[in-house]
Amino acid sequence: MRDNLKFSLESWPEAGLKVDFVLVPSVISPYLEAAVTEDGEFSEADPPQLASSMRGHLELQLFGKRLRLVGAFSVKVEFNCHRCLAAFVDRLGDNIAETVELVRDDREPDDESGAAVRIINNEFDLTPLICEFFWLAWPMKVLCRPDCAGLCLTCGANLNEGPCSCHKTQIVRH
Ligand SMILES: [Zn+2]
Ligand SMILES: [Zn+2]
Fold first, then answer.
1. Cβ atoms within 10 Å, residue 147
2. 29 in helix, strand or coil?
3. pLDDT per residue as tens digits for the range 26-69
4. Residue 24, helix vs strand vs coil
5. Taking a C-beta distance cutoff of 8 angstroms, is the pair 91, 72 a contact?
6. How far apart are the CA of 50 and the centre of ligand 1, in A?
7. Neighbours of 47 (CB within 10 A)
8. Which ligand sits closest to the CA of 161?
9. Residue (of 47, 61, 54) closest to 28 by Cα position
10. Could you give the C-alpha distances from 105 to 32, 50, 98, 101, in angstroms and in order?
C-alpha cells in the first residue's frame, strides 16, 4: 500500500507497475484548492472538504513517452445539497482509463490538448492528475437524496423535515 503517487523512472519495470494507494486528505487538499483558484470552475467559496482518505488502485504502463493508467479511486466528500443546503457525506469515485504524455523537465508537451505529467529529475507525481479525475467525477447536481424537497421559498424552512407553516395554511385554504 502506497501513501503517495510519486514514481521514479530510474528502475521502471518492463511489465509496468500495479499499485494500491491511500492518500490522506492533507496530501490531496492542496491540489484541490489550487484547482478552485486557477480555473474558477468550482463555484462554491470553499474547496471541498474530504471526509476520508482517497483509496484506489492503478496499473501503470509506459509506452515510450506515454503512460497508460487503468484503475479506480474513491473518497468520501462533504457535500452541500443544492436544494436544501444541508451538509452530507457521500462517496465520490470513478474508474480511470487514460493515457497521458510524460513531459521532461521544462519542455512543452507534444500534444497540448491532452493531459500531461511532468518528469522532474527522472521522477513524476500523479497526485495532481488524480485530483483532475476527482473534479471530472464531481456531480453536476448535488442532492442529499433524489427526492429532496428543498427549502420553502417563503419561510426558508427545510421541507424534508415536514411541511412548514406557510404550506399548512395553503392546504387549509384549498
Ligand atoms: Zn437536500
Ligand atoms: Zn414556508
1. 8
2. helix
3. 999 888 876 554 554 554 446 789 999 999 999 999 998 999 99
4. coil
5. no
6. 19
7. 16
8. 1
9. 54
10. 23, 31, 22, 13
Residue 174: predicted pLDDT: 45
Q: What does the chain come to in residues?
A: 174
**Tens digit of pLDDT for each residue in 138-162?**
888 899 999 999 999 999 999 999 9
User: How many whole angstroms from its chain centre is CA 34?
Assistant: 13
- Identify the band that residue 19 occupies on the pLDDT scale cut at 50, 70 and 90: very high
Query: How far is ligand 2, taken at its centre, from the CA of residue 149, in Å?
Result: 12
In the prediction, which pLDDT does 30 show?
A: 85
In the reported structure, the alpha carbon of residue 147 is separated from the centroid of ligand 1 by a whole-number distance in angstroms of 8
Q: How far is CA 27 from CA 30, 50, 132, 142, in A?
A: 7, 11, 14, 25
Domain residue ranges in the chain: 6-143, 149-174
What's this model's pTM, rounded to 2 decimal places?
0.82
Q: Which ligand is nearest to the CA of 87?
A: 1
